[in-house]
Amino acid sequence: MAAAFAGKVVLITGASSGIGAATAVHLARLGASLSLTGRNLDNLNRVGQQCEQTGSLKPLLLKGDVTNESDTKQIVESTVAHFGRLDVLVNNAGILEMGTIETTSLEQYDRVFNTNVRSIYQLTQLAVPHLVKSQGNIVNVSSVNGIRSVRLILILIELNKILSVWSRQQISPQFIC
Ligand SMILES: NC(=O)c1ccc[n+]([C@@H]2O[C@H](COP(=O)([O-])OP(=O)(O)OC[C@H]3O[C@@H](n4cnc5c(N)ncnc54)[C@H](OP(=O)(O)O)[C@@H]3O)[C@@H](O)[C@H]2O)c1
């Protein structure tokens, strides 16, 4: 497995903490060239340093909010401008809000929808032309809540169902999501 990702360019959203950060460090060990994004630049810098400590190339760190259309466009464009290609898009950035249909607001719904679903649609649209060229892949980080109900996280469950269906149907037929 060593250097299995050598020469591969991987863009990871939500790489400043949690699953995205762990994925970044793991792929750095495997030799990937990484483009890492998140809103918190301090956290992003820390993850970037952890990646470099594995002996990999210096990751490209891009601060941006995936619910902001121009930030999202900039993230994909800067990645391709810097590395000249894109092989893997990891759609990981996401938020969790607690509540049921009786206790949540439409503002909460919009916030979670825009972060966990709409941004993925836009990122995928922007990345697909580059992934077609590289015959690359998309990884969508969803949740078991997309297929199993858990009380009090209704919003996440409903929106993860959308992502799970997209992933099974494949947003673009060329990709296994
Ligand atoms: N951990 C679990 O048990 C679990 C279970 C089910 C699903 N998931 C899914 O797995 C993914 C990662 O979860 P996690 O547990 O690792 O969460 P986490 O530690 O809270 O990390 C979430 C990441 O998403 C980024 N993010 C959130 N909103 C963003 C926005 N508007 N623009 C840009 N980046 C944004 C955060 O970066 P900044 O704060 O720097 O912006 C952070 O890097 C999520 O999609 C989540 O729904 C996790």
TrEMBL record:
<dbReference type="InterPro" id="IPR036291">
    <property type="entry name" value="NAD(P)-bd_dom_sf"/>
</dbReference>
<dbReference type="InterPro" id="IPR057326">
    <property type="entry name" value="KR_dom"/>
</dbReference>
<dbReference type="InterPro" id="IPR002347">
    <property type="entry name" value="SDR_fam"/>
</dbReference>
<protein>
    <recommendedName>
        <fullName>Ketoreductase domain-containing protein</fullName>
    </recommendedName>
</protein>
<feature type="domain" description="Ketoreductase">
    <location>
        <begin position="8"/>
        <end position="160"/>
    </location>
</feature>
<dbReference type="Pfam" id="PF00106">
    <property type="entry name" value="adh_short"/>
</dbReference>
